[in-house]
Amino acid sequence: MNFADLQIFKTVVEEGGIVKAAQKLHRVPSNITTRIKHLESAVGIPLFHRNRQRLHLSPSGELLLGYAARLIDLSEEARHVVSGTAPQGLLKLGSLESTTASRLPAVLAEFHRRYPDVRLELTTGTNDALVNAVTERRLDAAFIAEPPSSRTLSHLPVFRERLMVISSLDHEPIRNARDAEGQSLIAFPDGCAYRRVLQRWLRRDSLTTSRVLDLSSYHAIVACVAAGAGIALMPEAVLDAMPLTRVRRNPIPRAQSDIVTPLIWRKGEVSPPVLALRTLMASVGTAPKRRVKQNA
To answer: What transmembrane ranges does the database entry give (predicted)?
Structure first.
């Protein structure tokens, strides 16, 4: 399968026909037609349905179009990487809401200053949702709560976090899991790594038998805790970012409380924007260097 034929195929689809594709590529229409036939011969199946002078993508053509676009994008990324040109294009980044609120403002401001030609789209979600989005190529990279278990993902530890159990000010200090008995639990939905930490600290196989209030906002969680609706587990850095918050901070053992937030990306698929972000995080991250793990 010829790479140039894939580029021609993609242009025909984007331009809506042979003639317009030929004009854009500065070729004669007969040459475009010949190259499309060569590509169809190589894959062994028609890529277009031909209706008089009009072409319509076949189901196989739609499948090949996706692969062609990815191959062309990877080729362009490789050219930028080896040429040393400044990163540009779109970076689809994911992050935990806690990291977004407490850690990313300064990081994103510095990234924009260094790489103004990169357009950044930020999506927040739970740990598991972000991992799935990176794996499925809906995101290029993401800040999550724990090292990924998948061998298809690489990671760089960047932020050290300390988790705290918070309760209302009139609640007695919580020194162990027994002190939390009878309390409603306020947490992000399933898929949240902090929710799993809370489950382990409580020494429960699951939280299904507990009274759990699922919320998707730290501001809402803190407000409910302050009002006495229950207890929650959250990073101390988030609480520091909300100085007017009136809740009791209850420390838990470091075995559960101390975690390091990693940046993840797909192994072997480092685009220039992802490489730029990884380089920036390696220079400003707070995780100890001896624990850094970088795999392209």
So the answer is: none
